[in-house]
Amino acid sequence: MGFEVIHSPYKPIWVPVDTPAGAATTLYVGQLVVAGVNASCQGVKAWNVAGIYDTTADQIPFGVVIGTNNRTPTFNSTYKTDSITSAYTVAGQLARDWVGTEGMHKKTDPAAMVQVAVLTPETVLKGPIFNGATYGTAITEAVVTAVNATMGLGFTCGTTGFDFTSVAYNATMYCRSGANKGLYRATYSAAAGTAEHLFYTYWPYTIAVGDKFVGANLPVCGTGTINFDDTGQYINGAAAVTTTDYIGINILRLDLERTGAEYAIFTINPHMFLQGATRT
């Protein structure tokens, strides 16, 4: 399962699945999608273009897929959720077995449709955090190999390190084992996964070689930057989120406690909805 809607100020709507010229589009429940002229589509498609607040492509966030009009659900074993594939030819549409939609689209319309929760700056989302380009790959537990001489200031995981090079003030570490277990700290250092990571708010209890930490390139709270996978179904905790590759968000809650169940609760930064107006 991908993204979940925690709160939305609008009721869900039904919209067509994109049909690029001579091709079909597959969408998944839990997927972030874009639509309209800026996205160059006839319905909705995956939101997966990265840029500096995505101004290179002007893809404005539109919704989260929460259902399909397939009469018989099609389960995708890779993403652990239902999927739907668009049909653009006459024969392809009429061969579909569909159920009725609501809103502006007639129940007799055979086109592939998805129900989406509309995204606005007020929409609160919950998204899983995975490592890299593969859905379901848990972020790595880094093991401390050296401790800074100033207690609590920092540590190095020189063998089994973090999955990413941290972006200063935009990365958060969580202690999985050791005296600081259960605590979060934001790092101010921009350091590779096996380099020393430093913290302005020190870890209060003694760090020891062998302690385990996990981390993600997400802020501990508030405005920051993240990136999604290529299908817009999870947060890539190892993404670089550098000056040319990120999406703006506001973190409300970060949970790195359980392996494979890490997640973030967030809203999308209002700047993401102003692409056409702010593009230079």
In short:
With 280 residues, the protein is mainly β. The protein folds into 2 domains: 4-120, no CATH class; 127-273, no CATH class. Helices cover 3% and strands 34% of the residues.
Total tally of structural domains: 2
Please provide the count of β strands: 21
Q: Using only CA atoms, what is the Rg?
A: 21 Å
**Helix/sheet category:** mainly beta
DSSP helical segment count: 2
* Proportion in helices: under 10%
Detail the poorly predicted runs. none
Mean pLDDT, to the nearest integer, reads: 89
Strand content: 25-35%
User: How can the largest sheet be summarized?
Assistant: 6 strands, mixed
Cα-to-Cα separation, first versus last residue: 36 Å
Net shape: elongated
Sequence of secondary-structure elements: EEEEEEEEHEEEEEEEEEEEEEH
Descriptive overview:
By secondary structure, the chain is mainly β. The chain has 2 domains: 4-120, no CATH class; 127-273, no CATH class. Helices cover 3% and strands 34% of the residues. It is built from 2 helices and 21 strands. The chain has helices at 90-94, 275-278, and strands at 4-7, 13-16, 26-28, 32-35, 44-46, 61-68, 74-76, 81-85, 113-118, 124-130, 142-143, 146-147, 154-156, 171-177, 184-187, 196-198, 212-216, 222-226, 235-236, 247-255, 263-268. The strands form 5 sheets. Strands 1, 10, 18, 19, 20 and 21 form a 6-stranded mixed β-sheet that branches. It has a 5-stranded antiparallel β-sheet with strand order 2-9-6-4-5, with no helix packed on it. The chain has a 4-stranded antiparallel β-sheet with strand order 11-17-14-15, with no helix packed on it. It is elongated and about 70 Å long. The mean pLDDT is 89.
